[in-house]
């Protein structure tokens, strides 16, 4: 019962429909509460305010249109996207021609992407079952590349407050890694939890990890201690991406109706200032 007193369940507070030209698989929350959204079914990245009103549209053009799979924000405030079909990672730079600049060379079926606290880009490579971590210089060249291996169909990725990261595996599990790319533990084994098809994942400042399960059509929160809590158990048809805002809200993409559903998941209005979990520590 302890965690049920800390976290809300099925508290939908808002829903907005994405623009018709907007894909619906990946979402990223900005520090000011605005949102970047993209998907592999549309050659655009949309910037929306926290209520879903369009602010800006970034056309995905690099000698030809391309379809972004997942996105993240860099420390400089730029947008980085993966392109699974062409095996590329690009960063948006409005001062270059074309505006989307290729990072390094080709990647092995890149899907999920995130940036950690040290400024490294993390890219989940689906076919090879790896996560590639690297720094990018001003010429968009890759430096100090390292790999985490042994994954089975990694799709989405998110960073954790301790400098580590979490990766979802298609029809499998969610694995947590340390900042030096060592496997810490899996959520299914640690929490004795059975996933259907885990897809979008995010972590809040306290280290709570939220996982979208597309098969079960729900969102489960894995806390610092105690049992998992199903924070969204109804109302989702085909959920994909997820993001948590600085205001303690969850943004969940439902690609069935091309919408974003916004939930309150915390009882307390503010995050705890104590240290979050470390990836090396099992709950």
UniProtKB/TrEMBL annotation:
GO molecular function: ubiquitin protein ligase activity
GO biological processes: proteasome-mediated ubiquitin-dependent protein catabolic process; protein polyubiquitination
UniProt cross-references to PROSITE patterns, sorted A to Z: NHL
Repeat positions for NHL: 104-137, 236-266
InterPro entries xrefs: 6-blade_b-propeller_TolB-like, NHL_repeat, TRIM-NHL_E3_ligases
Domain of life, source organism: Eukaryota
Gene3D superfamilies in the record: TolB, C-terminal domain
Keywords noted in UniProt: Repeat
Protein's name according to its UniProt entry: E3 ubiquitin-protein ligase TRIM32-like
Source organism of the structure: Xenopus laevis
Lineage: Eukaryota, Metazoa, Chordata, Craniata, Vertebrata
